[in-house]
Protein: Cd(2+)-exporting ATPase
Amino acid sequence: MKKEYYLKNLHCTNCGEKIERRLKKIDFIKDVQVDFITKKIYIETKEDIRGLDKKVKKTVHSVEPNCIIEERKYMHEEEIANVDIMKYIIAVTMFLTGIILDNKYSFYLLIIAYIIIGYKIIVKSIKNIIRGNVFDENFLMSLATLTAIGINQYKEAVAVMLFYSIGEMIQNLSVESSRNSIKELLKLKEPKVNCIEENKIVTKPIEKIKIGEVTLVKSGEKVPLDGSLIDKVCICDTSPLTGELVPKVYTKGESIKSGIININEPIRIKVDSEYKNSTIKQVLDLVENSTLKKGKSEKMITKFSKVYTPIILIIAFMTTILGYSIFGGKLVAWIYKSLIFLVLSCPCALVLSIPLGYFSGIGAAAKHGIMIKGSKYLDTICSLESIFFDKTGTITEGKFHVTEIVPFINIPKEKLIELAVAAEYYSNHPIAKTLRNSYNMNIDINSLSNFHEHVGMGNRCTYKGKDIIIGNCKLMNRYNIKIDDNCKMGTSIYLAMNRRVIGKLIFNDKIKQGSYKAINDIKELGINDIYILSGDCKENVEDVKNLLSIDRGLSDLLPQDKIKAFEELSKNKITSFVGDGINDAPVLSMAHVGIAMGGLGSDIAIEAADIVIMGDDLSKIPIIIKIAKVTRKVVLQNIVMCIGVKLTILLLGILGHSTLWGAVFADVGVALIAIFNSIRIEYRKYN
Structure:
């Protein structure tokens, strides 16, 4: 059983880590992940457990008493954190006055300022100690500042508590700002929907809308649910899903996906999918769950944070004891040095900025209509050695055009077309769709029977008492049907009646306009090992390969052949496969990073792929690579900066060249710099 909880008032990354560790110790919990960025707990149990909610609440409150556990909700429904600005203004005023006066009243002003700003932190640390949760930032700051007061360092005690509190406030607001940018991205769900019932407009919650109902979408409104257009024509902005800025025209009967914006006159849409199965629900789930599959850097930092605080505390204690015992001097001076260690002993900057960096990378991709299922795929993309492409619908438009009709016997072309459309009547292959859409043939379905599809080859059926076979050379060979024909440029589909070839249809498929630049950009980004794996004939694959300057192209591949070819060519390489997600699902799953194009129309794509491109633009592939490289660069910058600055201040502290002021600036300041550095990933241009 899987369940999700939303954590309100979770402001500490360390607390999130502790909650996760404690929940993992519960016997019946199979897996648990606490995600600080989305403020959620994801729990998987071995079976349906009664009392799970109480157990989770008890565990959470043992670490973070102020946390409120709520049922699952999407990020954009969360409230923005309130900040008590007046408290900080009063505390800062009293602190500055105490420093300026520097007389007998200074002590009282500083202590009052300390109480105002540090009261909640001290109370919280005491409560946590009672619950057995000692080593958190509240305890460390309380211990450091109270000890400073004990050795008459009043100004520094107040300064540390003040700067720490203000830093935490800015930190929370910065993280909230990053969350808000994702919330804006995810404001695709319309909570209320206008429905037309008995010529009246009725407003309903989106979850209550059933298949077959008619929704009314006014100009400027988002399409709430997947459906088909009832009106003659409409113009929609698909950028919220695909990232494409050019409006798209839909005609009567055409499928329209939820989340896009109607920019013309009001339209009516007949719902063909409930909210739980809609495109927008899948997109929301993809983005919200993307932080669960963690990258190597995230996992490394999680392990590092567990030992960092205890090690620093031990060093702080040993600094006082051994320093005073070996080198002598004033005990107060050695205690002061150990306080610097205490201030720097919380790894919040690292634990927060690393996942935030990945989250910003995923958010940047989502703005371009690219849904990444986990930060680990951003890591993997940076190490890609080879990329494999499907041809039809990925590199090419996947929209076939009949360029020639060639009868081999004395048969009218119209009759040849009728037999071809009948044989493709129940198929979903792009060629079948082209035939049905291009020729408005009145097929007598009562005369159509025994339909059987040979995957990757064609179809066989009985039509008006005749045995009809339509497909490529492989299918003709399977039925021992001889073909005496010279190949022409394009895709040739042969038609046989009663085991005799009676003609062929030649189809052409154009290369997408953006494919040329996309392949060139991929090579410029350092990936030159590029392949095409296609079921199309050799001539077509060679033509596309040569036009795009791709290294190698394999043709005439059935789905099982494509798997075998991919296994052989991808040995000892980090690979990605890019396909449409329908026939390519097995290979998408086999690749280190499976990328599905055209995710707007394919449930299989969303399920099988690691990355889903919501449109059909191949130029999104180099954008993914650029985002991944920038994300890794920023994450490494944050790691080096956070560890480097803290170690430098610690060393200066031991040598007597650093103060508590410097330590708190290093702790809070480096956290803020790392956070802002992470957030900038989202606002960078990648086109």
Residues 186 and 610 are 19 Å apart (CA to CA). Residues 201-288 form a domain with the Calcium-transporting ATPase, cytoplasmic transduction domain A fold (CATH 2.70.150.10).
